[in-house]
Amino acid sequence: MNVRRVMLDVDKARGGPELIDIAEAIEAVAGVEGVNITTTEIDEETVGLQVTVEGDGIDYDALIDAIGHTGAAVHSTDEIVAGVRIVERVPRTR
Q: Domain with 54 in it: what CATH number?
């Protein structure tokens, strides 16, 4: 499967890896062309992150392993985009 975008919910310890270290580990994964890491929440012990990765043929398993090796933890995969082109999410109207 040609994975083009992955959005992950990731936590790291406040004293854990720096964002630049996580980005560097992600960028080294096969197929990754770009990464965006945004802090979404900070509490006493952890920092919540939204990680968005784009590329062509992203190695999903290697991506999850790379993040884990930094000391951060993937809580969920919130979006996967795959195929020949990127299809943007269309919000539902009610």
A: 3.30.70.1340
Instruction: Yes or no: say if 23 and 34 are a contact pair by the CB < 8 Å rule.
Output: no
Report the number of distinct structural domains present in the chain.
Answer: 1
**Which pTM does this prediction carry?**
0.92
44 phi and psi angles, rounded to 5 deg: -60, -35
Q: How far apart are CA 4 and CA 80, in angstroms?
A: 8
In a domain, residue 89? The reply is: no
Per-residue pLDDT averaged across 12-35, rounded?
A: 97
